[in-house]
């Protein structure tokens, strides 16, 4: 009986060493073989970005310490196109930009300071002239 009690744990221990051929890394196989293309952004135009989104070929950054909350770049070339969404408490100004989202053909901006959402059509050629709908 004692022998049986010693053999039983050894058998159960050796059964733990069987491999099934599966591993945790098999769960996360690479899905795509795309190689990211580097984008050279005009870094002089980036102030202190804390938000970012890609909207209709435009790379849009939310800046924390700048006169304008939004900096707009060409998504293909990285060229700085301009700024929009000025700071302030006025009707078309923002107190604290809390979020950016691409909403169909418009850019959604959440002003956490006013608790409002604005939808904007970003003008590629003149971002400062972009129209905001509150």
Brief digest:
By secondary structure, the chain is mainly β.
Output the radius of gyration: 27 Å
Taken from the alpha-carbon principal axes, the silhouette is: elongated
Q: What percentage of the residues does DSSP assign to strands (E)?
A: 35-45%
Q: Describe the sheet with the most strands.
A: 4 strands, antiparallel
Query: What low-confidence regions span 5 or more consecutive residues with pLDDT below 50?
Result: none
Helix and strand composition category: mainly beta
Kindly describe this structure.
It is a single chain. The protein has 134 residues and is mainly beta. The chain contains 1 helix and 8 strands. β5 and β6 form a beta hairpin. It starts with a helix and ends with a strand. The mean pLDDT is 80.
Helix-strand layout with pairing:
Elements: H1 2-15, E1 49-55, E2 58-63, E3 68-74, E4 80-86, E5 97-103, E6 106-111, E7 116-121, E8 131-133
Antiparallel strand pairs: 1-2, 2-3, 3-4, 5-6, 6-7, 7-8
Descriptive keywords:
mainly beta; 8 strands; 10% helix; Thrombin, subunit H; 134 residues; 4-stranded antiparallel β-sheet; 1 helix
């Amino acid at each position: 009986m004692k022998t049986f009690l010693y053999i039983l744990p050894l058998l159960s221990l050796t059964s733990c060493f069987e491999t099934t051929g599966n591993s945790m890394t098999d769960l996360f196989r690479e899905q795509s073989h795309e190689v990211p293309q580097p984008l050279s952004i005009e870094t002089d135009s980036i102030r202190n970005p804390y938000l970012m989104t890609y909207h209709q070929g435009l790379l849009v950054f939310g800046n924390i310490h700048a006169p304008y909350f939004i900096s707009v770049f060409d998504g293909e070339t990285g060229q700085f196109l301009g700024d929009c969404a000025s700071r302030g408490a006025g009707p078309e100004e923002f107190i604290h930009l809390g979020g950016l989202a691409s909403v169909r053909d418009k850019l959604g901006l959440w002003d956490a300071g006013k608790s409002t959402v604005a939808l904007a059509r970003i003008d590629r050629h003149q971002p400062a002239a972009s129209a905001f709908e509150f």
